[in-house]
């Protein structure tokens, strides 16, 4: 008897830690910082869930998960050395181009 394993481990949001904490590296939409659980799926049916204890950035627009370290959230102005939100093109503190 052959058994075809169709499935895999996916992430699911279990708690939103911070809304609009960064910007999607894929589509530039606001992303939430979330706590995730891992879900094992067999034939697209969730069969097992467990706490991953990992924080991910989750994009509501394209559904992408990625580690917060990839997020361009904390960029630092090279002129005044303050942290600037990645949504800015220009430093709000000193007006320099970023
Ligand atoms: Zn996205
Ligand atoms: Zn600045």
UniProtKB/TrEMBL annotation:
InterPro entries for this protein: Double_zinc_ribbon, Zinc_ribbon_15
Protein name from the UniProt record: Zinc-ribbon 15 domain-containing protein
Species lineage: Eukaryota, Viridiplantae, Streptophyta, Embryophyta, Tracheophyta
Start and end residues of each Zinc-ribbon domain: 23-95
PANTHER family linked: DOUBLE ZINC RIBBON PROTEIN MJ0416, OS05G0435400 PROTEIN
